[in-house]
Design goal:
Elements (H helix, E strand, L loop, with lengths): L8 H23 L3 H11 L8 E2 L9 H7 L22 H15 L31 E4 L2 H11 L8 E5 L5 H8 L3 E5 L11 H10 L5 E5 L11 H20 L6 E5 L33 E6 H4 L7 E5 L1 H4 L10 H11 L3 H40 L7 E2 L8 E5 L7 E2 L9 H12 L1 E2 L1 E2 L11 E5 L4 H15 L2 E2 L21
Parallel strand pairs: 1-12, 3-4, 3-5, 5-6, 6-7
Antiparallel strand pairs: 2-8, 7-8, 9-10, 10-14, 11-15, 13-14
Helix pairs in contact: 1-13, 4-11, 5-6, 7-8, 12-14
C-alpha cells in the first residue's frame, strides 16, 4: 500500500524510524574495511588508493580543497586547534551584522535605507520580549553548524510550544524533522511525489494546512536534497499565495500565524552555463525574497557546502520578531563570526574569490555528472541486452540544477534478484544494502530522506575525485548485470518466451 501524500504523526514517525535505521546501516558500511572488496577491486581497477568500501555520499573531503586553499589563504580551516582566537569573547558581531545586511540588500535588490523586513509583533509569543525592529539590526545570527547549533536554538526557543505541529515537505535531510521530534514537537510529513520531481507542491501544502489548521511551522528545502532541483519563481509564488491566505485567516481568528523555515544550504551552488559571464548567470530565487513570504520566513544555510566542508559556520536570518525568539547562545564563536563577516563583505577580493570558487565547483560537478550520465547510459544498453525491452532501466529522477547530488530511479529493476540470492529488489533501502554488501558501493537510499522506499531512489554525490566516480560506476555496472528474474527463468534469459523479462508493476 503506497504511503499517503499527507502523513499523520504516526505515519511520519515510521518514516523517521526507517530513515534512522538506514542511516545506521549505511554508516556501518561506509566506515568498514573489507578484505574481500580490497583484493577484488585493487586487482580489477589497479587503483590501490581507492577504498575497499567506496562511499558515494557527501561526507567526503572536498576533492578540490587545494584549489580552495589557494583562493582563500587567509581563512583558518581548523577552528578546534586555533590558538589565535582562544579565550576571545564575541565582539557583538557589529561588523558581521553590517556586512550581512549589505549582502542581503544586494540579494533582495533593496536600496540602502529601505527596510528589508516589516516590524511586526504577530509572531511574538506572550513569553517573548517584544521586538522593535529599528533598521532590522537583529535579523541575523551566525553559529557553528545547522544540526548542532541552529536547529536546537530554533526548536528550543519561544517560537514553539510543546507538541506544536510542524509540517515538512519531503525529501528532506532527516536531521531537521528529527531535531524537532526530539525536542517535543509533533512532526507531520507532506510527501513529494515522482510526477512533480519530488518538489514541494502548493496544492499539497494547502491540503495539509486544511487538515492541520493550527500547524506552527512549515519546513522546506530549496534547492532540494537529494534531487538537486529548485523551485521556480512561479512555484514559489503559488506556495506564497497559499501561505498568505492561510495566515490572513488565522490572524482574523486571533491565532498565531504559520511561519516557514527554509533550508537554502545549496542555494549558491547553481550549475552555471559554461562560458557565461558571472554577472549574467541566473541566481536561484530566495524564497524569503517574495513579498508575501519575507516576514514569515526563517532562512537557514551554511558554508560547509558552499565554501568548504571545513568551514562549518551556519547562519539564519529573517523577520527580527522570529530571529529574536530563537534560543541564541551566549558563547558564539568569534572566529566563526569573523570568517563569516569576511565572506559577506563587499571586499573586491572576497567577492572575486567566492565567484571563482563557485565556478570551479560548477565545472567539476558538470564534468562528473557527464561521466555518471554516460555510465548510466552504458549500463542501460547492457541491461537491454540481457533483460530485453526498449526502455531505460535506470533513470535520473530529475535533471539536477544545483548542489552536488544526483538521484537515480531504479524502480524498473524491482522484482529482479542478484545472482546467487533469493530475495528480490523491493525498496530503496533493500537495493542500497545489497549494493553495499555485494560490491562495497555505498549510496544513500530514499528512505533516509523520508521518501517511499518503493520508489527505489538512490542518491549519489559528485563531490569526489573523477577516478572515484568512474570506478564506482564500474561497480554499479557489475551489480546491475548480475540481476536476473526470480523463479524458474533465473539464469536462462535467452530461453524465456519473448526474451523480455522486464518486471511488471
Amino acid at each position: 500500500m503506497p504511503l499517503p501524500v499527507i502523513c499523520d504523526h504516526e505515519e511520519t514517525l515510521k518514516l523517521l524510524a526507517e530513515a534512522e535505521r538506514c542511516a545506521a546501516v549505511m554508516e556501518q558500511g561506509r566506515t568498514r574495511e573489507n578484505a574481500v572488496f580490497a583484493s577484488k577491486y585493487t586487482a580489477r581497477f589497479r587503483t590501490p588508493k581507492l577504498p575497499s568500501v567506496m562511499p558515494l555520499v557527501e561526507e567526503e573531503p572536498d576533492p578540490h580543497q587545494d584549489e580552495v586553499d589557494k583562493l582563500i589563504p587567509g581563512i583558518e580551516r581548523d577552528y578546534s586547534v586555533s590558538t589565535e582566537y582562544k579565550g576571545r569573547r564575541p565582539s557583538g558581531h557589529t561588523e558581521l551584522q553590517k556586512n550581512f545586511m549589505r549582502w542581503l540588500r544586494s540579494e533582495f535588490d533593496i536600496k540602502e535605507g529601505e527596510e528589508i523586513f516589516t516590524p511586526t509583533t504577530e509572531f511574538d509569543s506572550k513569553e517573548a520580549e517584544k521586538v522593535v525592529a529599528k533598521g532590522n539590526a537583529h535579523c541575523f545570527t551566525c553559529e557553528g553548524s545547522i544540526n548542532s547549533n541552529l536547529l536546537p536554538q530554533l526548536f528550543s526557543g519561544s517560537l514553539f510550544k510543546p507538541h506544536d505541529e510542524v509540517l515538512y515537505c519531503t525529501p528532506i535531510y532527516s536531521m531537521i524533522p528529527s531535531r524537532a521530534n526530539k525536542l517535543g514537537l509533533n512532526i507531520l510529513a507532506i510527501r513529494g511525489v515522482k510526477e512533480n520531481h519530488y518538489k514541494p507542491n502548493a496544492d499539497d501544502i494547502e491540503k495539509a494546512l486544511k487538515a492541520h489548521p493550527d500547524a506552527r511551522s512549515l519546513l522546506l528545502v530549496n534547492p532540494g536534497n537529494p534531487m538537486g532541483t529548485f523551485l521556480s519563481e512561479e512555484e514559489i509564488g503559488k506556495i506564497a499565495h497559499v501561505i498568505k491566505q492561510h495566515n490572513n485567516e488565522r490572524i482574523k481568528q486571533g491565532k498565531r500565524p504559520l511561519f516557514l523555515v527554509v533550508d537554502e544550504t545549496f542555494q549558491s551552488l547553481l550549475w552555471h552555463k559554461p562560458g557565461a559571464p558571472y554577472t549574467e548567470r541566473e541566481r536561484l530565487p530566495h524564497m524569503a525574497k517574495h513579498r508575501d513570504l519575507r516576514n514569515c520566513t526563517i532562512t537557514i544555510s551554511t558554508f560547509s557546502k558552499d565554501l568548504s566542508p571545513d568551514h562549518t559556520f551556519a547562519y539564519a536570518y529573517g523577520n527580527p520578531s522570529l530571529i529574536k525568539q530563537m534560543e541564541i547562545s551566549d558563547g558564539q564563536n568569534s572566529q566563526i563570526q569573523e570568517h563569516a563577516s569576511a565572506v559577506f563583505s563587499d571586499n573586491t577580493d572576497s567577492t572575486r574569490i567566492l565567484k571563482q570558487h563557485h565556478d570551479i565547483n560548477a565545472s567539476h560537478y558538470r564534468s562528473h555528472y557527464a561521466v555518471l550520465a554516460g555510465a548510466v547510459m552504458h549500463i542501460n544498453d547492457e541491461l537491454r541486452k540481457t533483460l530485453g525491452g526498449k526502455e531505460d532501466f535506470i533513470t535520473f529522477t530529475a535533471p539536477p540544477a544545483a548542489g552536488f547530488h544526483v538521484s537515480l530511479d531504479f524502480s524498473k529493476l524491482a522484482g529482479l534478484v542478484p545472482k546467487g540470492e533469493s530475495d528480490a529488489l523491493q525498496t530503496s533501502a533493500n537495493l542500497a544494502e545489497k549494493l553495499m554488501n555485494k560490491e562495497g558501493l555505498v549510496a544513500y537510499p530514499g528512505e533516509m530522506f523520508h521518501m517511499d522506499g518503493k520508489d527505489m531512489i538512490l542518491r549519489f554525490s559528485l563531490n569526489m575525485k573523477m577516478e572515484k566516480v568512474k570506478a564506482a560506476m564500474e561497480r554499479l555496472e557489475i551489480f546491475c548485470l548480475s540481476l536476473e528474474p526470480p523463479g524458474p527463468w533465473a539464469g536462462r534469459t535467452a530461453e524465456r518466451p519473448g526474451g523480455d523479462i522486464t518486471p511488471q508493476h
